[in-house]
Amino acid sequence: MPRAGLTPAAIVDAALRVVDAGGPAALTLAAVAAECGVATPSLYKHVAGLPELRGLLTVRIYEELTTAVIDAVIGRSGDDALEAVMLAYHGYAIGHPHRYSLAPQRPDVTDPAAAAAASRILDVLFAVFKAYDLTDEQIVHATRVLRAAMHGFAVLHGAFQMVEDVRTTQRILIETMKSIRVAAKIAS
């Protein structure tokens, strides 16, 4: 009989605590079981193994990131929405660095739930760029550039060792991205 309170969602919560504390390398079924206070075989009543757990984590992380971005962009449009997206994305990535590094930038297309979760954030980015009067093709290019900029800035954030304020660099990046309307139209 499954332990009371142990569900796939509770296991994902425990796995996220393991990842938050020790990074992606700390994610093992034994560590998650210990966090849940059960023996490792007890997890198999709820998840088929580490690959399935990683898929569930991918979904949760993308859901969290998407929620943060949506919350930031509600009621905004154009440059204001784009800036809000970039700040929220960066805030999530820096606030949860181990979770962020665990989420694949290209989710497994054979996992429909992970692919759908990743697609939802793209839908938000596409919606933001609709206000820029871009064609669908230009929106795809603009979204790729935005994702590359946001991901690169988030991943490199800890590597910026010079004394100049990183927030100034972030402001320059945001202002550069606001010119995407012109750049996307030039490229097509």
UniProtKB/TrEMBL annotation:
Keywords: DNA-binding, Transcription, Transcription regulation. SUPFAM superfamilies: Homeodomain-like (SSF46689), Tetracyclin repressor-like, C-terminal domain (SSF48498). Residues 5-65 form the HTH tetR-type domain. It comes from Dactylosporangium vinaceum. Residues 28-47 bind DNA. This is TetR/AcrR family transcriptional regulator.
